[in-house]
Structures are given as structure tokens and as C-alpha cells.
């Protein structure tokens, strides 16, 4: 009798208490998968192994000029900047982007930060957004003019150890 009351009076409540805090493993797994799916994109400074792959030969067999010939001393910084720019454009953060343009910008004729912010949707069109979102970081074209996003929708250049947007072709 004592063993039975000990079993039900002590062990059963402890087991119930311990099981109350656990969630089904299916929910935990799906939550982890959902959270992990966008981890690198929401944390732009965490590049994947694929992002860092050798980019001296592209999938089509073409060879871009070296990063140095494109005026870049830190290719990883460029890739991190592109990822950050993808996040800013995805979230329409004109204020964040405006600090990285070179003014006045001849193409498309942006006078200053205020002009960029005011006409953001005219400069960062759906085509520019799509090109930037599709840009693979292990396939970044570059030449003596700088670093190209998409088919030339955005051009970047390193200036004073910072990456700057030098052209937006919308």
C-alpha cells in the first residue's frame, strides 16, 4: 500500500510537472527549420560556405578580373555589403541605403541623400530589387569599373576602405 501511494502521490505528479514544459518535437523541428531558412539573409554578416566559394571562374566559364583590378582590397567586405544591401532593399530602408551612395550620382542623376529618399521608388525599381535579390555572392562580376550587381542595375566601388554605390541603372 505504501509503495502504491508513493508511486501515485509523488512520482506521478513529478512526471506530469516535467511533461508540462515540453512541446511536441514536430513543432520544435518545424520552428527550427523556419527560423533557419532565413538566418543568413536576416544576419547579413554571416556568409555561407557557398557565398565564399571560389569565384574566379563563373558557372558559364567566364572569368572576371581579379578583385584587386576592380579596385577591391577586401572581397569579403564587398560580399557582406551586398548581403546587407539585399536586406535594406528588401525592407525598403532608404535611409540606410542613402548613406552609401556617392553624391552627386550621375546615373540616374541623384543630387543628395534627400533626393534619393524622396524618389527612392523611382531609383530602386522592381527590376533593381529583383536583380539585387537574385545576386549570388559567389558569382559577383567585376571589372576595372567596379563591382556589378545583376546585369548592371547597381555598380559598387571601394572608396577609402568603404564600399559605395556608384551607379543605379533602373
Radius of gyration: 25 Å
| Strand and helix order | HHHHHHHHEEEE
Q: What's the assembly state of these chains?
A: single chain
Low-confidence stretches: 14-40
List the helices and strands and how they pair.
Layout: H1 2-20, H2 25-37, H3 39-42, H4 75-90, H5 94-98, H6 113-118, H7 120-123, H8 126-134, E1 141-143, E2 146-149, E3 154-159, E4 162-168
Antiparallel strand pairs: 1-2, 2-3, 3-4
Notable characteristics:
single chain; 170 residues; alpha+beta; 4-stranded antiparallel beta sheet; 4 strands; globular
Could you characterize the architecture of this molecule?
- The chain has 170 residues and is an alpha+beta fold.
- It folds into 2 domains: 37 residues, no CATH class; 129 residues, no CATH class.
- Helix content is 45%, strand content 12%.
- It contains 8 helices and 4 strands.
- The chain has a 4-stranded antiparallel beta sheet with strand order 1-2-3-4.
- The longest helix has 19 residues.
- It starts with a helix and ends with a strand.
- About 16% of the residues have low confidence.
Short description:
With 170 residues, the protein is of the alpha+beta class. The chain has helices at residues 2-20, 25-37, 39-42, 75-90, 94-98, 113-118, 120-123, 126-134; strands at residues 141-143, 146-149, 154-159, 162-168.
Amino acid at each position: 500500500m505504501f509503495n502504491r501511494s508513493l508511486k501515485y502521490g509523488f512520482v506521478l505528479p513529478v512526471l506530469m510537472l516535467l511533461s508540462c514544459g515540453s512541446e511536441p518535437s514536430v513543432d520544435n523541428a518545424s520552428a527550427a527549420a523556419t527560423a533557419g531558412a532565413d538566418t543568413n539573409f536576416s544576419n547579413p554578416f554571416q556568409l555561407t560556405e557557398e557565398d565564399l566559394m571560389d569565384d574566379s571562374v563563373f558557372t558559364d566559364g567566364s572569368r572576371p578580373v581579379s578583385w584587386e583590378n576592380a579596385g577591391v582590397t577586401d572581397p569579403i567586405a564587398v560580399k557582406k555589403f551586398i548581403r546587407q544591401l539585399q536586406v535594406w532593399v528588401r525592407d525598403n530602408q532608404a535611409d540606410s541605403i542613402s548613406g552609401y551612395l556617392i553624391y552627386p550620382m550621375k546615373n540616374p542623376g541623384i543630387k543628395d541623400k534627400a533626393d534619393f529618399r524622396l524618389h527612392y521608388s523611382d531609383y530602386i525599381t522592381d527590376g533593381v530589387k529583383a536583380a539585387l535579390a537574385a545576386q549570388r555572392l559567389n558569382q559577383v562580376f567585376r571589372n576595372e569599373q567596379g563591382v556589378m550587381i545583376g546585369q548592371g542595375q547597381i555598380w559598387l566601388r571601394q572608396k577609402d576602405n568603404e564600399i559605395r554605390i556608384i551607379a543605379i541603372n533602373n
